[in-house]
Write a structure and sequence with these properties.
Radius of gyration: 18 Å
Strand order of the largest sheet: 1-3-2
Bound molecules: zinc ion
Strand content: 5-15%
Protein name: Transcriptional repressor
Number of helices: 5
Subcellular location: Cytoplasm
InterPro entries: FUR, Fur_C, WH-like_DNA-bd_sf, WH_DNA-bd_sf
Main location: cytoplasm
Keywords: Cytoplasm, DNA-binding, Iron, Metal-binding, Repressor, Transcription, Transcription regulation, Zinc
Length: 142
Amino acid sequence: MSTGEELLRSKGLRVTRPRLAVLDVLAAGGHLEVDEITRRVRERLDSVSTQAVYDVLGALSRAGLSRRIEPAGSPARYEARVGDNHHHVVCRGCGEIADIDCTVGSAPCLDPHTAHGFEVDEAEVTFWGLCPTCQARRSADE
Ligand SMILES: [Zn+2]
Ligand SMILES: [Zn+2]
Ligand SMILES: [Zn+2]
């Protein structure tokens, strides 16, 4: 388990307190919206603007230290789980997101019949459904 400082240095990024704080927040797990990340970073650092958090997330994502996902109809979310080929299942009811391990194991998972000459490196797969909470709510409503 490497520290945030080691992670940043390994990618040639300058070590700053906001970057360390964002890495720390993401390391707790989950798929977090920028607002939530900002709220948690402010528990660690006194004054951090939302724009600063956006900038940090952009730098971390470009460096491959965080992954940005943006399911249809949902704001962008960020997670620390990078470097594997996992997918996501999104609840149609409440927007809850969970990780789904790739059943194939390596990108791009799905081989198109024809790629029109493209060199394909990723298939973006999102599973949609109802989470357990929303299923229970639906049963209660019936
Ligand atoms: Zn739900
Ligand atoms: Zn994920
Ligand atoms: Zn896959």
